[in-house]
Amino acid sequence: MNDQVTLSGAREQLTRLRAEIGKRIVGHQALVDGVIACLLASGHVLLEGVPGLGKTMLVKTLSDALHLEFARIQFTPDLMPADIIGTQIVAHDEQGNRYFQFQPGPVFTQLLLADEINRATPKTQSALLEAMEEKKVTVGRTGHPLEEPFMVLATQNPIEMEGTYPLPEAQLDRFLLKLTADYPSEQELSTIIDRTTGGEEVQVDPVLSGAELEALRSRTRSVVVARHVKDYAVRAVLATHPGNPDAPPLVQRYVRHGASPRGALSLILVAKAFALFEDRLNVSFDDLKAAALPALRHRILLNFEGEAEGIEPDALISAIIDGIPVAG
Amino acid sequence: MALFQTPWLGHELDERLAGDMLRDIVAHLTRQKWRQQLIEGFGVGLFWGLCAATAAVLLVKLNVPRLALLTVIVPCVATAVIAALVAAWLKRPDRLQVAILADLELRLKQRLSTAWEFADRGADPGLAQRLAVQAVKQRFPPAYQRVFPVRISTWHRLVPLAALLLALVSVLDLAREPAPVVQAVDDLVIEQGRRLREFARQMQVRAAREALPRSSAAAESVQRLGARMETGALSRESALHRLRTLGQALQGERQTALRASGAGSAGSPGQLAGEAISGSDAARLRDLLQQLLHGGLTPGQQDSLAREAGALSRSGISSQALREALDDFVDGDPLELQQIVEVLSRIELALEDAEALGTASERVERARENLGEFIVRADDLVRPGRRTGSEDTDARGLLLRRPSGDAGAVSQAGGHGAGSEPAPRQPARKLSRSSEREDVGLKATGQLRAGDGFATQARVLPRAAPASVATLALDTQFVAQVEEVLATDRYPLHQKEFIRRYFLQLSQGTAAADSTPP
After folding, report:
1. In the predicted model, what is the mean pLDDT of residues A211-215?
2. I want to staple A65 with a disulfide (CB 3.0 to 4.6 A). Which of A20, B81, B239, B394 is the partner?
3. How many Å apart are CA A5 and CA A12, to the nearest integer?
């Protein structure tokens, strides 16, 4: 199939997808674009925001707009790994013999909403590691592959510290993007009230199948990156390391660990998705700049001084991006 | 981020054509960038060339002031500009870099540079052609041909400042100020030059009035030297040298005039007065003979002619020749008598010339004296045989002493010779005042008629006299003690002198003559 024809169809599909999501989600344009980009880049997304901003609603709307299986796990402190990945149960065959049978957990889906993921213990949170990275679950000695496309959309509340367990760095690194939900504007809030307090329920129709999504993902990966653009991304990621002499003073002072190579991959992938949004065959510097914050903010580990002074990783990333020349 | 705002690429643009267009655009942009580099290089070269020329001009002005500045400025500027242009020419811009810059300038979101990179790499022709289509289909702004315009850089803006600095340095006069001492000497030279020029002007008037050819030429020489000295361009040494040369020339011219007058080789005015006919005698004889030629002589004039006829022999015309001329005149042939009158006229003119030249020579000598050169004339010498090594004689046999050390100082040996009693020291200022007084007397001398006599100027330094008071051998230490006591102790003021004398006499071993204090 001709790539251009495919892309032309993909554009229409993505337009329809945005339109369907827009039926229920008011505003949050960057959040919606980020989630779609993450979907195209075959990654997982961590949504952070105070309660009531529509994070869960966004994920449910996305699942409604896609012909994909959807499951939701409400993370609680007493949630066990087996509650996520499944467990072996004793079953009886026709002859009455008993045997162990694997009972799949809710992770065996295509869109998984891990709501308030930071309320579960690290042990339970880590149960998602293999599923997110390798798209399979191992129980006992048997591995169980997950159905493609598979995407985890986790939410967490940044202000409730009591009874929460911050995600470990390894877990955080598995998320392609970390998106933050902001408060809606006055106009958006008014529209939200009109839509949700009326008698009619908004109906979201599925517009994208799993196969179509896979085709879009394939095209996303075919977006090319010029050498000088790639060099820019590499310099940006390396500049998050405090030991790098080219790192800004803020990074050298407040950062303990910078972004991993997985951060560079995330940056490029999301930038490619953003390029696809604009019908471009190539990644631009603007795409990288737009992808830098959501792709790197959760991969920068502040030191004690940075934590004590309340340094925001977003400020560090902005300083890095501003300090790297785009030409020469 | 705006999504899906532009249509995706269509098929209407041929991919090969897009590739050609891409190459054309990048090539055009590269030429633009190259031109921009050359212009910027010109600005850089011009600026640094002007700076180098400024430094070179400074060095030249300090070390080789007479070197023409253009021979320094032009090579510096030309070399720097050519070097900068050559460097810009060799530094041909990279096409990928040009595409990257054009992307940024035209906000093409790296379409052009990505397309060029993949086309240049040649890895995937299909992808490269699609990228080329994407890049070319981007509607370039109408002014894309001026992506790298001819712009005025910082270096260009600095060029006028550098040029201004160069102009200022070029007109700057770095010559050192003359020392004050030299300026004082110059003032004296200027003053003497002014006087010489004034004298020369009067001499010229007289020479023109009395038709004296040699004096007229000499007056011009004197006036030229005076004017030169008056400008202050001559140092004292140089002025003295020129005055000396001019004085010798004037003496030589005077000798020539005297020889023309028939005075032979008479070297001095004294000799001339004694052996040759004087100017006044020649004038009287000529007047008498002219009256005789034009009419007749009174009995008194005939007696005078008879008396003056003796003087005629000193002019080289014998009495016999005069008598024959008178006889011929009585016989009606005035030719010989007219020739004698002409000879007398020439003698009178030559003598007047010689007199004027002598006066000029004296003025030049006076100027030399006023500038500090000590001149001793032969008649000043008491013992001519005892000269010092630094003395010299001039053309007239005058004894000269060159100034040594302070130009205005007068040697204390003077004309009395070394080994004689020392003459009192005389400062140069005193000598100058003395010369000023001599100016008055010389003016009277200069008014003498030719042939009336010549005065010789002489300045004899006073002879040292024996001391008129008895010499007292004082013990300096004792005197110092006396003075210290008198200064510190309290004595009545009117008695201090008595006390001082008393103790000084004691120091001589003599009793006080007057033991009663005042």
Report:
1. 86
2. A20
3. 11
Query: How far B21 CA sits from the closest chain A CA (Å)?
Result: 18
Cβ(B375)–Cβ(B400) below 8 Å? yes
Enclosing domain of residue A235? 223-328
A→B interface, C-beta within 8 Å: 3-4, 7-8, 11, 14-15, 18, 29-30, 33, 224-229, 274, 277-287, 290, 326-328
Residue A204 lies in a domain: no
Nearest CB to B113 within list A18, A228, A279: A228
Contact assessment for residue A316 and residue A250, using Cβ atoms and an 8 Å cutoff = yes
Return the residue of B nearest to A328 by Cα.
B97
d(CA A255, CA A240): 8
Measured between beta carbons, the chain B residues lying within 8 angstroms of A286 are 109
- Total domains, chain A: 2
Structure confidence by residue, pLDDT tens digits, B379-400: 444 444 444 444 444 434 444 4
CB within 8 Å: A15 and B97 = no
What residues of B are in contact with residue A270 (Cβ under 8 Å)? Answer: none
pLDDT surpasses 70 at B517 = no
Lowest mean pLDDT among A51-60, A274-283, B137-146, B497-506: B137-146
Residue A230 has what pLDDT?
93
Roughly how many angstroms between the first and final C-alpha of chain B, as a whole number? 124
Copy the structure tokens of residue B374.
Answer: 């000590």
Size of interface A-B (CB pairs under 8 A): 84
Judged against a pLDDT cut of 70, whether residue A268 lies above it is answered with: yes
Mean pLDDT of B168-193: 69
| Min distance A202 CA to chain B CA atoms (Å) | 24
Question: With contacts defined as CB-CB under 8 Å, which chain B residues touch A268?
Answer: none
Residue B249 CA to residue B252 CA, distance in Å, equals 5
Residues A214 and A247 in one domain: no
Three-state secondary-structure class, residue B232: coil
The residue with greater pLDDT, B66 or A165, is: A165
* A281:B134 CB<8 A: yes
| Residues of A whose CB is below 8 A from B130 | 3-4, 281
Residues of chain B neighbouring A3 (CB-CB closer than 8 A): 130
Residues of chain B contacting A, Cβ within 8 Å: 1-9, 11, 96-97, 100-101, 104, 109-111, 113-115, 117-118, 127, 130-131, 134
Unique residue bearing structure tokens 């006023």: B370
Say how far apart CA B72 and CA A184 lie, in whole Å.
Answer: 74
The domain that contains A230 carries what CATH number?
1.10.8.80
> Poorest-confidence range of A95-104, A283-292, B101-110, B117-126?
B117-126
Query: A163 and A310 share a domain?
Result: no
Would you place residue B422 in the very low, low, confident or very high pLDDT band (cuts 50, 70, 90)?
Answer: very low
Q: Residue B199's pLDDT is what?
A: 92
- Alpha-carbon span A104 to A107, nearest angstrom: 8
Give the C-alpha separation, A106 to A80, whole Å: 12
**ipTM of predicted complex:** 0.79
CATH code, A159:
3.40.50.300
